[in-house]
Fold this sequence. Notes:
Radius of gyration: 24 Å
Order of helices and strands: HHHHHHHHHHHHHHHEHEEHEH
Distance between the termini: 47 Å
Structural class: mainly alpha
Strand content: under 5%
Strand order of the largest sheet: 2-1-3-4
Shape: flat
Amino acid sequence: MANTQASSGGVRVKVQRFGSFLSGMVMPNIGAFIAWGIITALFIPTGWWPNENLAELVGPTITYLLPLLIGFTGGKLLHDVRGGVVGALATMGVIVGTDIPMFLGAMIMGPLGGYIIRQVDRALEGKVKAGFEMLVNNFSVGIIGGLLMLGGFEIFGPIMSALDKVMAAGVDWIVGAKLLPIASLFIEPAKVLFLNNAINHGILSPLGVDQVADAGKSVLFLLEANPGPGLGLLLAYMFFAKGAAKRTAPGAAIIHFLGGIHEIYFPYVLMKPILILAMIAGGATGIFTFVLFDVGLVAPASPGSIFAILAMASRGSYLGLVAGILLSAAVTFAVASVILKSSAAEEVSLEEATQNVSAMKGKQSYASALVTDRLDKVDHIIFACDAGMGSSAMGASVLRNKVNKANLPIKVTNTSISNLPKDAQFVITHEDLTERAEAQAPNAIHRSVTNFLNADYYDQLVEEIKAERSKIS
Length: 473
């Protein structure tokens, strides 16, 4: 049994890591996607202010700029700027070798270029004579990048084009057959396993951009970003839960719906996994409504805030968007309310759930597992999440305020797990992400939380640190 759990945990971590890599190529460039979406929404023939001259920016941006940014970022993830340059060159080959926006090709050729130049640099390390380093470095990038560009144009371009067309045709068929709501069966469970960024930015966004190029909008941008189901769940907790879950739900609802940080509601689902049924029902309702009203966005809504969604809405989509979001929230609220009320007698609080999870894992609860003999040396605490911009930023903000009020000389920051420094001292992550964080920063003190807004835990952590520092003084 233990081996089975370890195996499933390892698989989950590998899937999360792969998904994080995919989204890591797109998320740093979301601003560029939004800029392109705004220009598209304003100036194409069906936009708010059609302008033939300004609309000429739309085509080159989606054909060249956005794929090149993704390719460069993918290569850079593997081998810094040199990898980025080779990744961009390799991506250029598939761009010119096809007649459609090459996002799929960029997500393959970019990392491939970064990986190959990394292997070449490792093979040449220590073997280049003094004075020839710059010559070798420049020509190795030029030669490898040129070869990959040619290979992308002649070989990978046609292959990527065929794959892209197959995927786009599949999506079009699903949308045409009114089967898109079924996607909630996969999207909602995957989200609460912290694969939300991978789904949205690694899969749906590239396909959505292809649709925008043809139709001026895409419903795919709404499948993961819809804040309605999360709002409905948190409202149900406000009315029918107890303990810390009930107390924190209102603040979480505001952060989720207005701030667009969906990770905030994941612990509320994980605390009672059967609630995933409410999320699926609400998600499917929202998608059905979006398809019924034929609405869409012109670019990814990131973060998934109601403000970002309305800002990226295509002309004529507002009524359907609002209806879909509200109906998905209502359905999730109704189903979650029934589940929460029917299990009220045996329902555990958020604090008890945390302790139970720790016990099942054979570990102490996070509050009692502090390594006190090292806390006096901590001067930097890092919150880490998958993207490094959502839930970790909220947790860091809460703890930072408490550390400042306690006059402790401790820096509190947040980052993505993939960017955790190897010399990190103290790392706080959600319990489902801790294993990845431990692999990234093995020498740090690692603490797991089930809710980044759990102020009680941060109060106790501050007291523990103060107690350890008082022993030294």
